Amino acid sequence: MTAITLTPAPSPGPGCALCATPGDFGPHDPADPHSGLCPACVTAGKPTREGLESAVLIVAGQTLAGAESLELATAAPEELAYHLGAVKRSLRTVLQLLAPVKGKGAR
Questions:
Q1: How big is the CA angle at 58 (ends 51 and 40), to the nearest 5 degrees?
Q2: For residue 50, which of 38, 35, 33 has the smallest C-alpha distance?
Q3: 56-83 pLDDT, tens digit each
Q4: How far apart are CA 63 and CA 6, in angstroms?
Q5: Closest-CA residue to 38 (of 25, 57, 28, 51)
Q6: DSSP secondary structure string, 47-95?
Q7: According to the model, what pLDDT value does residue 21 have?
């Protein structure tokens, strides 16, 4: 299985890097997990974007490992449907990390 690596996206404009609250909370520094976050996000202990990305990649890797271990020749149709659906959801989540979709209810 090939490891997926993400390069940090450029810091967005003024505002909290996590919840987009308007204001100037400083630049995003990958070495400091709370840089660029508003005081409310820091106080609430919300996970940083890097933490969320890491969690998504771990789950996606586990899903792909499960799908790769499936014997296609002997798999039941239900198993194939389950694994293909799981891979689709994992891929969608990883792609949304790379290019988040804006708007309410957007897919």
A1: 20
A2: 33
A3: 888 888 888 888 888 888 889 998 888 8
A4: 18
A5: 25
A6: PPHHHHHHHHHHHHHHHHHHHHTS-TTT--HHHHHHHHHHHHHHHHHHH
A7: 78
Is residue 87 located within the same domain as residue 59?
yes
Does one domain contain both 42 and 82? no
> Can you tell me the distance from the alpha carbon of 93 to that of 102, in angstroms, rounded to the nearest whole number?
14
Tokens at residue 53, please? 């990305």
- Full-prediction pTM beyond 0.70? no
Q: Are 85 and 60 in a shared domain?
A: yes
Residue with tokens 């840089």: 35
